[in-house]
Design brief:
This protein is α/β, with parallel strands linked by helices and about 240 residues long. It folds into two domains: about 150 residues, Rossmann fold; about 30 residues. Helices cover about 60% and strands about 10% of the residues. The strands form two sheets. It has a five-stranded parallel β-sheet with strand order 2-1-3-6-7, with helices on one face. A two-stranded antiparallel ribbon has the order 4-5. The mean pLDDT is about 80.
């Protein structure tokens, strides 16, 4: 998670040492995060936590020179804090196995004295893992909703049987009319084809007749002079 993504995240600090608590607060605020401060679990601002639960808890379990791990158990009993990722500040790390096994959230221990940069890196890592888990949970919820929606559509009530039979009857009663209309179209098409064929034959015959009559030979006319010569010859005889 980048510093931009960390900005606005609320971190709960339960640290008895005021100087250490203020030092951690200033470092987190410099990185753009908000903080809620408390000296002990008993001093938690319940109203503020319930209104906007924090994203992470930084807990100092040291009491003097020893570690009071009961503070961790006390925090885990809180409704809004039981599942938070926790950075534990202690002189003695790691967390005792019998205590760590009973915790619900993700917990990491940072041994004192610690570098502030290491603390910020741990906080960044836990916030990134928390955001990833939230995104996976959201994706899983959306996938489940899609599956439920698909199942609901698949199990929808089918069309009642009487309605289906009525639709089948109506369809069957229309079929003869459709068949008759198709036959009529076929007959009309055939008649049109025959008419066009007959018309073409008539045009062909007429053309042949006209062409034949136009090419018949006619007798050549006899010139008048020839006729007169024939008549004179007849008279002389």
């Amino acid at each position: 998670m980048s510093q931009t993504q960390e900005a606005g995240q609320k971190i709960l600090l339960i640290v008895a040492d005021y100087s250490l608590r203020r030092l951690i607060t200033l470092g987190l605020q410099y990185r753009g995060m908000r903080t809620i401060e408390a000296s002990s679990p008993a001093a938690l601002p319940a109203d503020e936590i319930e209104t906007e639960p924090p994203a992470l808890l930084v807990l100092d379990v040291d009491s003097g020179v020893s570690s009071d791990w009961e503070l961790l158990e006390e925090v885990q009993e809180h409704h809004y804090l039981s599942t938070l990722p926790v950075v534990v500040l202690a002189w003695e790390c790691p967390i005792p196995a019998e205590i760590a096994s009973e915790q619900q959230g993700q917990i990491t221990c940072l041994a004192k004295p610690f570098d502030a940069r290491m603390l910020h890196a741990r906080i960044e890592q836990l916030l990134a893992e928390r955001a990833e888990k939230a995104a996976q949970a959201l994706a899983e919820a959306q996938r489940r909703q899609q599956q439920e929606a698909i199942a609901a559509v698949a199990s929808a009530v089918p069309v009642p049987a009487p309605v289906a039979r009525a639709q089948t009857h109506v369809t069957a009663s229309i079929l003869p009319f459709i068949a008759a209309f198709g036959l009529l179209l076929a007959f009309v098409g055939l008649m049109v084809q025959l008419t066009l064929t007959g018309l073409g034959i008539l045009i062909l015959l007429a053309s042949l007749l006209v062409w034949t009559l136009g090419t018949k030979p006619h007798p050549s006319p006899v010139p008048v002079s020839n006729r007169l010569a024939s008549v004179g010859n007849g008279k002389a005889t």
